[in-house]
Write a structure and sequence with these properties.
Blueprint lengths: L10 H14 L2 H10 L4 H8 L9 H16 L3 H16 L1 H8 L5 H14 L2 E2 L2 H6 L8 E2 L4 H14 L6
Helix pairs in contact: 1-2, 2-3, 4-5, 4-6, 5-6, 5-9, 7-9
Length: 166
């Protein structure tokens, strides 16, 4: 991930790189830049042909980063849901989109942040529910955040946790 051009800190940085590649007439590298950053190659072609003024905006750059990271992590079930919550927040909130794109911030660390909260917030499930599930154990604990809490934790990770240290 990010092997050719490196992790870029913003849509602006991606667009400056794209502009240089376009001026050089290096369409292949422009396509690779888009692919490496999870940006649809159709956007790269439109930019190359002059149909758009830039390769990406903040939301496109952020969602592209999440999709590039997700391709490596291969999230499933609740973690896939959390990944979608992040992408939705990138569309809804430009500040979060810019924060997602920052160097040092990552989907893996954000999921870890949610998982840490989940572990620390676990609670015992009612014995009637356990019996109804057909589970024959003395105790079951859960701690998965609901959608609202997950979105709050995602925002907290990307906006309040500093530059992505860890």
């Amino acid at each position: 991930m990010f092997e050719i051009f490196g992790e870029m800190d913003s849509a602006e940085e991606i667009n400056k790189t794209a502009e240089g590649l376009k001026k050089e007439g290096d369409t292949d590298s422009l396509i690779k830049l888009a692919e490496e950053n999870g940006i649809d190659t159709e956007f790269a072609w439109k930019y190359h042909l002059g149909e758009t003024e830039s390769l990406c905006d903040d939301a496109t750059a952020a969602i592209g980063k999440i999709e590039a990271e997700a391709a490596v992590l291969k999230p499933v079930e609740i973690i896939a849901d959390w990944t979608e919550y992040i992408k939705t927040q990138c569309i809804d909130n430009e500040e979060i989109a810019r924060a997602v794109r920052r160097k040092g911030k990552s989907l893996k660390e954000c999921i870890g942040y949610l998982l840490r909260w989940s572990f620390n917030a676990r609670y015992k499930v009612d014995k009637g529910i356990i019996r109804a599930a057909g589970i024959s154990t003395a105790s079951v604990e859960m701690g998965i955040p609901g959608m609202g809490r997950a979105k709050k934790l995602i925002k907290e990770y990307y906006l309040k946790q500093g530059g992505g240290e860890k």
